[in-house]
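Workshop exercise sheet. Pairs work together: one partner reads the sequence aloud, the other fills in the structure field after running the prediction. Swap roles for the next sheet.
Pair: D.N. / O.F.
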Amino acid sequence: MRRVAVASFIGTAIEFYDFYIYGTAAALVLNDAFFPTLTPVNATLASFSTYAVAFAARPLGSVIFGHFGDRVGRKSVLVASLLMMGLSTAFVGLLPGYSTLGLWAPLLLVLLRFVQGIGLGGEWGGAALLAVEHAPRGRRGLYAAFPQLGPSVGFFAATGVFWLLSSALSDAAFRSWGWRVPFLLSFLLVGVGLFVRLKISETPVFARVMADQEASKVPTLDVLRRHWRELLLGAGGMIIAYGLFYTATTYCLAYTTKNLGIARSTMLGLSMVACLFLAAGTWLASTRSDACGRRKVVLTGTGLAAVWGLVLFPLLDTEQPVLIALAIGGALFCMGVVYGPMGAYLPELFGPRVRYSGASLAYNLGGVLGGAVSPLIATRLQPAWGSASVGWYVSAMAVVSLLCVLALPETRERELG
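Structure field:
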């Protein structure tokens, strides 16, 4: 179990590092590097739009990798998703900007971001199942906490690398070549992830499915026909986790540096501090869900998020570093309370024949609804209605997730098959 926990944790940490460095770069430099002919607001929107492309691709990745994960096995699919995600990320660091390639530069950027999304669409479901299907029933929340901690560590590492580069380089050097370094590091990280993942075994639950010759022929169709309710409600439950994260990190990073004039290095440092709140909320909620139940803990998190959305931007607008760290840290803590138990909750909603496809689709559809559009909507809301309107939008997402989770059953005592 230690090897499984390490493999699921390291894999998600690496893949989310890859995903988050793009979000940080989108907030800081991609508008200048790839969209220099647009006005500042439109360039930011264009940059966030390329960011959203990966979310649109993630459900497709769920279908592709879920199909093979439910028919061939969890392990081999996880290796393939890691390679796809890592290499597409590294090639962003090698991609010339608009000044060199012209229109081809943003087009190739969108293509690489789309491939990134497909890879990540297959990653989370396999990593969660790797942990959950190996774990004993009373400890599934505990072991699912390890892949759920991957985003915290990935975000901390991504932000830390950008913070070091921002502090060490001049603004001109950072915008010229420094921002590419975090992407190029992905070459090294992919090698580490492959080394760890190739040493793990197939999950015992899937091994029994194959031994009984019960694999689904078309898992995605089975999910849509027989588990559509769990799929839609599970996706709805994930909306606030994604919405909180990408509002509190990607959008707030752009908002505080460009609208409030706070130094880039200061905001990156505060984001790293706030990330500790995400890790704490994720671990606390994941482990407590074994005793209290997944549903109860997730409902608590959505309720907290509905309240915190209303205080997020008033705290940011003080321009005080301590209060800014509290604002973002509080949002990420609420996100962790929702996100942590989902590592066990979503897989438990689906049977073993379609679990990879069902859990992955629910997770990534929630990403489309919550993560892909949040920075775009926030960028439009703030100039028209003020920063408080973005907070109301966050609270509205929390209410939607709360209603969806209320319609789902408790799954803690379910057998996985």
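Discussion prompt: The mean pLDDT is 86. What would you look at next?
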